[in-house]
Design a protein that fits this description.
The complex is a heterotrimer of chains A (about 250), B (about 375) and C (about 300). Chain B has about 375 residues and is an alpha/beta fold. Helix content of chain B is about 65%, strand content about 10%. The chains are: A alpha/beta (about 250), B alpha/beta (about 375), C alpha/beta (about 300).
């Protein structure tokens, strides 16, 4: 793993009126790393993620994503990242092919290139028979896997995953993580949030946000050692127990 | 019973805490009345008028001069022939034409009777009527002056022969008030009721209510009552606006007017409940209520376009639109001052529709999901 | 005594083309805390709706608190407390208004069964005048539970009460359920989180509309048919791939910071075999141990068996 930093955050802060949603968070993420971004409901995860995705401006602090500044170069940031969430994944009433074509087009890929990559993608996912089916007809697990493939279709430097595996069965969840590992091995940096604490353990490093601050940042193993517990669940509980605020 | 009261109270909380609902409920009538009131106002100035003077003598010129001094009419061109007049109408800017026949003056002098023709653009019934009224007034005035100056017999009369192109029957300018009433009650009762029921389905609260000793039908009743009361308040607001802002006179019995409106509100509520039974999302409910109810109300009620000029099939369809019957009833009671003996037919039709819709709504209401 | 029974329940949608619940049978005993565990789309919500009488099954019989879900639906509606999956209360009503409303709808008052909800209600009481929409996820959940309990139901049916809620709130919620159980209420709860399974007395694992097994969580874990190993090295993903490509290995998947591995029957000394494979592929910091299966391991195993049958 080379040591190129793809996300650098320094004292990043976001205030809404007198409410500090994100309070001076700092971290660096290396190329190809799987970074778990955890936090209790309302800890400020979503706000921080929105800033890093170029959807919202911070109030103060510095951050660069894929080498671009979050204040001045939001457009370049958007071109170099992929995004997938549990809520919005794909258009249910478009076929698999149409979805891929659409998102490829959104990221400005050439028609030929889209075609070439689509064939490859359909092949690896083994979806030849379903390629012309509506996405709505696919089982949830497949939809999520497809959504992830689409999110990295334009070969972004970083992909943001917002609770990508919510409600998915344990087998599909692991297949999904296989895809994440594979993407990370190919040099894509993974930034993922999850409610499943065992998934947190799959990450190279995780951060735990509590009340707008990053309370812990380390590898899962070190965190468990530090708090002298055996599961991430307990680590999280110890850290988030004292949280004062919650969502909404 | 206590359960029902609590439920009704809850509905009022929903309405009064949601700014959007309040805005639709009380903002809409105000905007509509003002919009329709001034857009369709009978006080129109600077109406474009063309004149074809075939008589071309002193008398006709006198009449023309008199018309030209009117602040309401803007005389554009004099001395056009029939074909040219038609062209002007088609271009749309000209709203009326006055045709003075060749023997205008001689007829007047010899037989004391003369005819002139007024043609108006009937697609704009209000303006048509206004032009006719203005011209008639001017001509009557002209007659009187002539009678004095020429010592011609006072019996002398010019009879304006009025022809409204595109809309031969014409339409009163105040008709929009009952129309707006029908429209607003329709929108509020149907859309808001259906949306509020469907919202419970979306939020999952309907499921909990179903799984409770609360009688499912009570849900419908409890939803209907607050909107019935709010709609009556709304109706009062429209009425007040009509009377005090637009100077409309309520000629008939106020009680009868309220009774007819209550009946119509219940019709609309039944329709709203029916819609909510067959849809599961707020958007669908709103879309059906607005597109499915507002459009027919606008088209088939007859307050924007006269029904008589529509194709036969449309006229047949209009019989199935509740607002058409309500519109007729309100027009009769409010504007013409007629009593119940004149609106029993409309009342009967609306009652029949209400009973029908309500029984379908109750039958369709599922005690399960 | 059995409080909830389901016998060969079948439910299909879209004229039979989608089978949501496929021949499901299980029972919940009186006073039991029973978990229905499975991913989204497994048929959990359909089962809850059938039990709460808002949905009719195509086939089979079911009863709740001794009443038939079809014939005696009115009695059931009066005797169960229900929290649907997407239940979110009236957002524009305050905490107190919500509670009062549901109390009245169920023909009771807050005071009448105050003892039952006291522990939970005390935590949200300071926010009595706050609108439900302005509450946090955890507090909403507590309020919803209070509303479901307000008429002192014999049976509590909770459809995914902890989905999308963070670990801390989830823990608190399960504590509340335990307290309620102690007061004699029968609880049927569903969840997609496998780690919550061990908090129930008995569970049913459900996938694709079919019940894979019903038992106490310990028994399900004990019934795991083969030895299960956990392994890790510095490069965990490469280790996963290396194990998968080896013939001796039956299955290998990521599980927390370890990989969980099962071997084919003919391999005797699993530990040394796994060590050997890892070393041969040049892994460092290798750690291999034999472990007990978790519910999630059992679920994965049962899913594999089910698919093998098909």
């Amino acid at each position: 793993m080379d040591q190129e930093k793809v996300i650098i955050c320094k004292n990043l802060t976001k205030r809404f009126g007198d409410f500090t949603a994100v309070n001076e968070i700092s971290f660096d993420i290396t190329k190809g790393e799987i970074f778990g971004f955890l936090g209790a409901n309302g800890a400020g995860k979503t706000t921080a993620m929105r800033i890093l995705c170029g959807l919202s401006f911070p109030t103060s602090g510095e951050a660069t994503v894929a080498g671009y500044d979050v204040y001045k170069q939001q457009e370049q940031i958007k071109k170099n990242i992929g995004y997938m969430s549990q809520k919005f994944s794909l258009y249910e009433n478009l076929t698999i092919l149409e979805n891929i074509e659409f998102f490829g087009g959104v990221y400005g890929l050439e028609r030929k290139e889209i075609k070439r990559r689509t064939e490859k993608l359909i092949d690896t996912l083994g979806l030849q028979k379903e390629a012309k089916k509506m996405v709505g007809e696919l089982p949830l697990g497949w939809k999520q896997k497809l959504a992830f493939s689409v999110a990295i279709f334009h070969q972004p430097k970083i992909v943001f995953l917002d609770e990508p595996t919510g409600g998915v069965d344990p087998v599909t969840r692991r297949q999904f993580w296989d895809m994440i590992y594979e993407a990370a091995a190919s040099g894509i940096t993974i930034f993922v949030t999850t409610h499943y604490m065992d998934e947190a353990e799959y990450c190279n490093r995780i951060s735990v946000m509590v009340d707008g601050k990053v309370e812990a940042l380390d590898s899962p193993r070190n965190l468990k050692e530090k708090h002298q517990v055996t599961t991430m669940d307990e680590v999280f509980y110890l850290l988030a127990r004292g949280a004062k605020r919650s969502d909404n | 019973m206590k359960q029902l009261l609590v439920f009704i109270k809850k509905e009022f909380y929903h309405v009064f805490r949601d700014r959007r609902t309040l805005l639709i409920m009380f903002g809409l009538p105000i905007v509509q009345i003002i919009l329709f009131g001034f857009a369709l106002s009978s006080e129109v100035k600077n109406i474009h008028l063309v004149i074809a003077d075939y008589s071309k003598d002193v008398k006709s010129q006198k009449l023309i001069n008199k018309i030209m001094t009117s602040e309401y009419l803007l005389v554009e061109q004099v001395n056009l022939n029939y074909q040219e007049i038609e062209q002007e109408f088609k271009r749309g800017e000209v709203k009326g034409a006055l045709i003075i026949p060749v023997n205008f003056s001689s007829d007047l002098l010899h037989s004391g009777k003369s005819q002139i023709q007024v043609i108006t653009d009937g697609s704009d019934p209000n303006i048509s009527k206004t032009i006719t009224n203005y011209l008639t007034a001017i001509i009557v005035d002209f007659q009187q002056q002539e009678a004095l100056s020429d010592q011609v017999p006072a019996l002398l009369s010019i009879q304006p022969e009025v022809r409204m192109l595109f809309n031969e029957e014409g339409n009163g300018s105040l008709n929009f008030i009952p129309g707006v009433m029908a429209l607003i009650l329709m929108i509020i009762c149907t859309a808001l009721t259906s949306v509020s029921v469907v919202k419970e389905k979306e939020m999952g609260t309907m499921e909990v209510l179903l799984v409770s000793p609360f009688k499912p039908v009570f849900v419908l009743i409890a939803k209907a009552i607050p909107y019935l009361l709010l709609s009556l308040a709304n109706f009062t607001l429209i009425l007040l606006l009509a009377v005090f802002v637009l100077d409309v006179e309520v000629r008939g019995s106020l009680l009868l007017l309220y009774l007819e409106s209550t009946l119509f509100i219940i019709t609309c509520l039944s329709l709203g409940l029916l819609i909510s039974n067959v849809t599961n999302s707020q958007q669908t409910a709103l879309l059906i209520s607005l597109m499915g109810m507002m459009l027919p109300t606008l088209i088939f009620t007859g307050f924007i376009m006269p029904l008589e000029n529509m194709p036969k099939i449309f006229q047949v369809i209009s019989n199935f639109i509740p607002s058409r019957w309500y519109y007729l009833a309100v027009k009769s009671v409010m504007l013409k001052g007629l009593g119940f003996s004149y609106v029993w037919k409309e009342t009967l039709v609306l009652t029949g529709m209400t009973v029908g819709l309500l029984s379908i709504a109750l039958k369709k209401f599922k005690v399960r999901l | 005594m059995e409080t909830v029974t389901l016998q060969n329940i079948v439910k299909t949608y879209n004229n039979g083309s989608v089978k949501a619940v496929d021949d499901v049978s299980f029972t919940v005993k009186e006073g039991e805390l029973f978990g229905l565990i499975g991913p989204d789309g497994a048929g959990k919500t359909s089962i809850f709706r059938i039990l709460t009488t808002v949905l009719l099954a195509d086939k089979g019989q079911a009863s709740v608190a001794g009443f038939d879900v079809v014939k005696d639906y009115k009695e059931i509606r009066a005797s169960v407390g229900y929290m649907p999956g997407k239940f979110s209360l009236y957002q524009d009503l305050t905490v107190l208004e919500n509670l009062n409303f549901f109390a009245t709808v169920f023909g009771t008052t807050i005071e009448e069964n105050y003892e039952l909800i006291k522990d939970i209600y005390d935590q949200i009481k300071p926010f009595n005048n706050r609108r439900a929409g302005k509450l946090s996820g955890g507090m909403k959940q507590k309020l919803a539970l209070c509303c479901a309990l307000i008429h002192k139901p014999k049976v509590l049916l909770l459809d995914e009460p902890t989905t999308g809620v963070d670990v801390v709130s989830r823990k608190e919620f399960w504590e509340m359920l335990k307290t309620l159980k102690r007061q004699g209420i029968t609880i049927l709860v569903s969840t997609p989180y496998m780690d919550e399974a061990t908090l129930c007395e008995r569970i049913a694992l459900i996938q694709d509309g079919k019940i894979m097994t019903v038992d106490a969580p310990e028994n399900i874990m004990k019934a795991y048919p083969t030895k299960l190993y956990a392994a890790r090295s510095r490069e965990i993903y490469r280790l996963l791939l290396d194990y998968r490509s080896d013939e001796a290995i039956e299955s290998s998947y990521a599980f927390g910071e370890y990989l969980h591995i099962t071997l084919h029957n003919k391999v005797h000394d699993g530990l040394s075999k796994l060590n050997e494979i890892a070393e041969k592929k040049g892994h460092v910091e290798i750690q291999v141990k034999e472990i007990k299966a978790t519910i999630e391991d059992s679920f994965i195993r049962l899913m594999g068996e089910k698919e093998a049958k098909v």
